Amino acid sequence: MKKFILFMLIYTLVFATIIPCSVFAASADYIIAEEAAKFVSEKDRVGLEISGFVPQLKYTASPTVQGTVNLKVRNFVQEVIKNAKKSNYSRKISFFYKDYSNTTTGNIVSCSVTASVTSSTTKNYETAFTVDLKTPKPRVLTLENVLNSKNAMPIVNTIINNSIANHPDKFNITEKKDPENDNFYIENNYAKVIYNNYTFSIRFGSIKDFTLDKNYYSKETFDLKMIPLRTVCEQFGYTITYNGRTKSISIEKGDFETSIKIGENSYYTDIKRKRTLDASPELSRGVTYVPITFFEQILGIYYKIENKEITFSQYIG
Questions:
Q1: CA 189 to chain centre
Q2: CB 115 within 8 Å of CB 80
Q3: Where residue 28 falls among pLDDT bands split at 50, 70, 90?
Q4: Which of 85, 118, 168, 294 sits at a 20 to 30 Å CA gap from 301?
Q5: CA–CA separation, 291 vs 281, rounded Å?
Q6: For residues 132 and 144, what is the distance between their CA atoms, to the nearest angstrom?
Q7: Are 262 and 247 in contact (CB under 8 A)?
Q8: Contact (Cβ atoms closer than 8 angstroms) between residue 235 and residue 212
Q9: Rounded to an integer, what distance in angstroms lies between the CA atom of residue 148 and that of residue 186?
Q10: How far apart, in Å, do the first and last CA atoms of the chain sit?
Q11: Burial of 295 (0-12, 13-18, 19+ CB in 10 A)
Q12: Are 281 and 262 in contact (CB under 8 A)?
């Protein structure tokens, strides 16, 4: 009996030890912690107190992926040092990183890297990387990859700009720029986008794509694409209704409503905002066509043209 109890105790301890190790195996196998100061020259360290660690990818199966990620982290360290040295006060710089690989699936490794610079005030800097180490084609992931949308970048840019506009007291951003396609980490089912050292969360599956490869035509002027209104709109949940009395076509979704008339170059994002586009709506064989710019400028549906394929995308939350 005593031998059995001893066996079960040893088994339990071993089992409890093995499980957590296996869960975190992906990151443990591919990430090593390096002292941040290692990437700063002795000359640049003068007047600075540098502490903490940054991640370095160790994945010799793809020197290109490893080199790209590690160079990004090193450049981040050097950029933080460069900004810190602009201050005339004593400067303490603390680096740390967080590995989110245990919240991802497969062979995805994802990390955020943060630097806290303390002089007369404290300022934080942040960067991130996400890689898919699945063979035979390991790669640095982009927002287009993880959000599964060809129009991810303009949509992400819009989400960020709207967040800043809606909460001006929350963000102190002096320099406007486009978000970077690879500056994010993954936490559970969200892409955490780093923009101007702030983090914006975008849920996986929140962008819908629809590809049109036929049933549209081009006008001679500027090769303007004319798109079947109903075909695209209904893919994104809009209701299309023809009003025989006013001879207009209404487009509705939730609280949004607008209308168009065949042959009239008048478009509205709301009742008070009238604008013209590249062409008027046209009717051909019982189908209403609108200029491709209608979708982005009026409905907020972005598009990308690749050869004969047109991919439309909209953020659905």
A1: 12
A2: yes
A3: low
A4: 168
A5: 7
A6: 14
A7: yes
A8: no
A9: 14
A10: 60
A11: buried
A12: yes
Q: Which of 65-74, 139-148, 243-252 is least confident?
A: 243-252
pTM (2 decimals)?
A: 0.85
Contacts of 295 (CB under 8 A, 6+ apart): 227, 232, 301, 302, 303, 312
As a whole number of angstroms, the distance between CA 105 and CA 102 comes to 8
Residue 197 CA to residue 172 CA, distance in Å, equals 10
Question: In terms of Cα–Cα distance, which of 243, 270, 275 is closest to 258?
Answer: 270
Cβ atoms of 95 and 78 within 8 Å: the answer is no
Which 3 state secondary structure label does DSSP give 107? Answer: coil
The pLDDT of residue 138 is 93
User: By the 8 A CB rule, do 106 and 97 touch?
Assistant: no
Average pLDDT (261-283) is 90
What 3-state DSSP class applies to 172?
coil
Token pair in block for residue 60: 């010799």
d(CA 75, CA 23): 31
Query: What six digits make up the tokens of 38?
Result: 């290692």
Chain centre distance of CA 131: 14
Count of other CB atoms within 10 angstroms of residue 147: 25
**Cα separations (Å) of 310 from 208, 228, 261, 288, 316?**
14, 12, 24, 18, 19
Please, what sign has the CA dihedral across residues 235, 239, 244, 248?
A: negative
Cβ(33)–Cβ(55) below 8 Å? yes
Q: Assess whether pLDDT exceeds 70 at residue 9.
A: no
The DSSP H or E segment spanning 25 is helix 25-30
